[in-house]
């Protein structure tokens, strides 16, 4: 999530110059929103041995942070070949737990939660189906804003709409 202090203005190039730690291979995703709801963005970067294979990003003029986090993951999964063994990282515990822990039960119950409706259900269903179709891709949580190079890079992609107006 890119809604925080002074690093908001970092471009992807500035991130590459400043940060060097963390995993060197994987897909890193992030979503951002200024206000919640408000304008938002999403981004992901796929890296192999510290080299960018692919990156994508997008914006939405009226959205929420969770919708942008889900959209980033959906876009990343859509790009991944079905048989690829890779780790996909998200700094959204909500998204990671949705895919890894909760969605299977919701699906068994007809896409219902015991405690009420599922927020962003259309995106959750799409993400879960994509994750199921790529069983060799592992979705893992990664701490936000701890200096992990490629997670910071995904954040810069997701927050580009703030820099670009």
Question: In terms of structural class, how would the helical and strand content be classed?
Answer: alpha/beta
Cα-atom Rg, whole angstroms? 15 Å
What is the string of SSEs from the N terminus onward? HEEEHEHHEHH
Major beta sheet summary: 5 strands, mixed
How many helices does DSSP assign?
Answer: 6
Overall geometry: globular
**Strand elements, count:** 5
Q: Determine the N-to-C terminus distance.
A: 18 Å
Oligomer: single chain
* Average pLDDT taken over every residue: 93
Give short descriptive properties of this protein.
single chain; about 160 residues; alpha/beta; 5-stranded mixed sheet; about 40% helix; disordered N terminus
Describe the fold and architecture.
The chain is of the alpha/beta class. 40% of the residues lie in helices and 25% in strands. The protein has six helices and five strands; from the N terminus they run H-E-E-E-H-E-H-H-E-H-H. A five-stranded mixed sheet has the order 3-2-1-4-5. Strand 1 and strand 2 (38-48) form a beta hairpin. Helix 2 (65-79) runs parallel beside helix 4 (121-133). The longest helix has 16 residues, at 93-108. Mean pLDDT is 93; it is low at 1-7.
